[in-house]
Amino acid sequence: MMPDLLPIPDLRDEQVLRRIAGIRPYRLGGIRLEADEQTLHGRLLVHNYGHGGAGITMAWGCAEDAATLVRQYAMRGVEVAVLGGGVIGLTTAHELADAGYRVTVYAQALPPNTTSNIAGALFLPAGVDWGANAAEQDVFIGRLRRSWARVEALIGEAPGVDLRTVYDVDATDNHHEDRWLEIGLPTEVRRVDELPLPGAPRSGKVYRSLFLETPQYLPWLLERAIARGVRFESKVFASLEDVRTLRQTVVVNGLGFGAGPVFGDSAMQGARGQLVLMKPQPLPYILQHGWTYMFPRRDAIILGGTFEPGVLSPLPDDVDCTRILSTHRSFFAPSLTEHHA
Ligand SMILES: Cc1cc2nc3c(=O)[nH]c(=O)nc-3n(C[C@H](O)[C@H](O)[C@H](O)COP(=O)(O)OP(=O)(O)OC[C@H]3O[C@@H](n4cnc5c(N)ncnc54)[C@H](O)[C@@H]3O)c2cc1C
Asked: How far is CA 174 from the centre of its chain?
């Protein structure tokens, strides 16, 4: 018997709050997380950037690995510079402070003015290359697992972190590896021939995944880093020469998309993502349908989206945002017809 249909959103024009866009730090070949003793002439530089559409997802596992690389080189108490104050820089700074280092974050912007604030954010390894071969993919999955454990442990402690039910509709533009659902992190995974959605029958999967409401989570992360003694300095790095002027013997590069120009990495392609934000409505589920997705948050319903490699304008495009809205409207079409009646 078909279960009750899920409640659907009111997507009328008067519900639209705003349209936004951000450049995901998408890197061909995947995340760069490695030690580099050449670039700063013998000082340790640890790269931690290129997380694409999955920086909120991967932050803790990557921060642990970045801190491990620092530990192999420098004793506790050493001064460390972290470049960048988005989710990657803040999480890495937090790990390093916990490991006993004296950390200063240098950044042009902090939350709420980073790309990390634009993210939804669902815990989902999408829009990021998992690695070029099996060994690299194993490393990626290891970081994913450790990130999951760290975020799951924050439920009840960090505001805006919880588990949500995801309706993942089969789509031709599926953006995440099928392995995501096979590695045992999302829980209660079920394959369903007919999801409880209005309109034509749609197959897909239902599962529980972590969700991080960035408007609550990122300020908490920033406060927690400050509470651990992390210092912050406003700084713009125009080139590598600016990085070389830093006094610290250990530098962690968490510049996100900014790492490409500053460190001359041509693999940093970037990928614009656009969202339409609607007035908040109480919907008890997340919808995933390829790059079409809906995340209900307490401040807004996030409607996505786009993944546009090489598009570097941080501005939303009217045509694309109208299409995002109309795609969602037609997805929920039968009942929306009632809304418009
Ligand atoms: C529309 C959209 C939806 C997304 N949804 C999700 C999601 O659901 N789940 C998920 O996990 N991820 C999602 N992401 C991806 C996520 O936002 C990124 O992977 C993440 O924010 C990257 O974090 P970061 O710290 O590397 O970069 P940023 O947040 O961009 O931080 C970079 C930091 O470096 C600083 N900086 C950069 N260049 C310079 C410079 N030259 N000098 C000084 N400072 C500099 C910036 O000021 C900032 O402090 C989404 C992204 C977008 C755009």
From this structure: 17
Q: Which pTM was predicted?
A: 0.96
**Is residue 144 in a domain?**
yes
Domains held by the chain: number: 1
Determine the distance separating the centroid of ligand 1 and the alpha carbon of 116, expressed in angstroms: 4
**For ligand 1, atom 51: residue with the closest CA:** 119
Give yes or no for residue 59 CB within 6 A of ligand 1.
Answer: no
Pocket of ligand 1 contains residue 20 by CB under 6 Å: no
As a whole number of angstroms, the distance between CA 328 and CA 220 comes to 32
Helix (H, G, I), strand (E, B) or coil at 19: strand
Asked if residue 171 is part of any domain, the answer here is: yes
User: What residues contact residue 70 under an 8 Å CB cut-off, 6+ apart?
Assistant: 44, 46, 80, 96, 99, 101, 250, 252
Domain that holds residue 181: 13-340
Kindly state whether residue 5 falls inside one of the protein's structural domains: no
Residue keyed to tokens 């406060």 = 223
| Owner of token pair 């070029």 | 132
Residue 3 included in any domain: no
Tell me the per-residue pLDDT of 224-266, one tens digit each, with 9 for 90 and over.
999 999 999 999 999 999 999 999 999 999 999 999 999 999 9
CA 127 – ligand 1 centroid, Å: 13
Q: Tell me if 217 sits within 8 A of 159, measured CB to CB.
A: yes
List, in order, residues 6 or more apart from 90 with CB less than 8 Å away: 105, 111, 218, 221, 222, 225
- Residue closest via CA to ligand 1's atom 18 equals 55
The total of other beta-carbon atoms located within 10 Å of residue 53's CB is: 26
Tokens of 132: 């070029």
